[in-house]
Write a structure and sequence with these properties.
Layout: H1 16-26, H2 32-42, H3 46-57, H4 62-66, E1 68-71, E2 74-77, H5 89-101, E3 109-114, H6 120-129, E4 132-138, H7 141-151, E5 156-159, E6 174-179, H8 194-199, H9 213-225, E7 226-236, H10 241-250, E8 254-260, E9 265-271, E10 318-320, E11 328-330
Parallel strand pairs: 3-4, 3-6, 4-5, 6-7
Antiparallel strand pairs: 1-2, 7-9, 8-9, 10-11
């Protein structure tokens, strides 16, 4: 996690604030006043503040400028170039947490976060689950460094391609496997906002010709890593969900897609056969999932782990923009909410 204490207050540099607001507004920042406050609270000196403003005006994501992102009520360290956790991914955390919390209380859940990026998902799950055996992995060295800072002593973080760096003894033991794998089709990368396209690692965005290349690889090997009845969860888009479900079923998992309208999020949940049973293609499981609303798979909004960081405006909780499922922008977050925690 990152230090949230303010270093340069508005009162200590009152003349700088209006200049920062003016520069940000001229550069097209919609929430210039709020961004100015965040930048000034993160800067140690006037000079550092000016440098941060220059980086923001040049198009860097605000999260990279200040060095952190808000996710599930946590401050997640995000270095330059590392994928910025999106608010929609809080739904993935909520679904994974619900499944882990449904396990027998006497058993310590084994959770793996593949394509972990900054470690935001793993850090949030470690916070909500408490006593959990957490493992995370990513192929990007910069992301791995961030994840180790964010997860800390809450779990082990490995550098490598998908399952390759994981300890062999995890085979057949994983209760909940989450993978926020890249799912933007290669041809749609050019349509992303510059903040993502130009400043986040390509490996964290590009999902191949149809966006499902990495998901297929994750699903193909999942059965040998999951415990009997274990779950694989991936974030995807509404338009890709049906194909992701079929991919899971082809890998021997029962599968269903669940959605959250408020977060504009879609997650596909696959379940390995229970001990002594064979997989049944197309049979979905709802054990441990959040309650569904109506007759469809739409699920209520997923609460966050804890209160928003002090002084947060919600700008560093990134949501989905209006242009389509692959375009993200910073949007104000809602009020603080909490996930249920595992009983002591």
């Amino acid at each position: 996690m990152v230090d949230s204490s303010p270093l340069l207050s508005l009162s200590s540099s009152p003349s700088l604030y209006p200049r920062v607001v003016s520069e940000l507004r001229t550069a097209g920042c919609v929430f210039a006043e709020d961004e100015a406050r965040l930048i000034l609270s993160a800067a140690r000196t006037d000079g550092e503040a000016r440098n941060m403003v220059a980086r923001r005006v040049a198009g860097l994501p605000l999260e990279h400028v200040v060095g952190w992102a808000e996710f599930c009520g946590l401050r997640i360290a995000v270095d330059t170039g590392v994928f910025v956790p999106r608010r929609r991914t809080e739904f993935l955390v909520g679904q994974a947490a619900a499944l882990a919390l449904a396990l027998p209380s006497a058993r310590r859940a084994v959770v793996v976060d593949l394509c972990c990026g900054s470690g935001a998902v793993g850090a949030a799950l470690a916070t909500v689950l408490g006593d959990v055996e957490l493992h995370a992995a990513d192929i990007d060295p910069a992301a791995v460094r961030c994840a180790r800072r964010n997860i800390g002593s809450g779990g082990a973080v490995y550098e490598g391609d998908l399952y390759e760096p994981l300890p062999r003894e995890l085979r057949g033991r994983i209760d909940v496997l989450v993978a926020n794998a890249p799912y933007v089709p290669t041809g749609a990368i050019a349509l992303l906002p510059g903040e993502a396209r130009d400043h986040e690692a390509r490996v964290a965005l590009d999902g191949g010709s149809d966006g499902l290349d990495v998901q297929r690889r994750v699903a193909a090997a999942a059965a040998e890593w999951l415990a009997p009845g274990g779950h694989l969860l991936v974030e995807t888009s509404e338009r890709q969900a049906a194909r992701t479900v079929r991919t899971f079923e082809a890998a021997g998992l029962s599968a269903q897609a669940v959605e959250c309208d408020d977060l504009d999020a879609t997650v596909v949940v696959g379940t390995a056969p229970a001990a002594g049973t064979a997989p049944t293609a197309g049979t979905a499981t709802t054990a441990g999932l959040a309650p569904t609303a109506g007759t469809g798979p739409t699920v209520r909004p997923t609460p966050t782990v804890g209160p928003d960081p002090a002084g947060s405006t919600g700008l560093l909780s990134r949501g989905r923009g209006p242009e389509g499922p692959y375009r993200d922008r910073a949007v104000p977050a809602g009020p603080p909410r909490r996930l249920p925690r595992r009983p002591a």
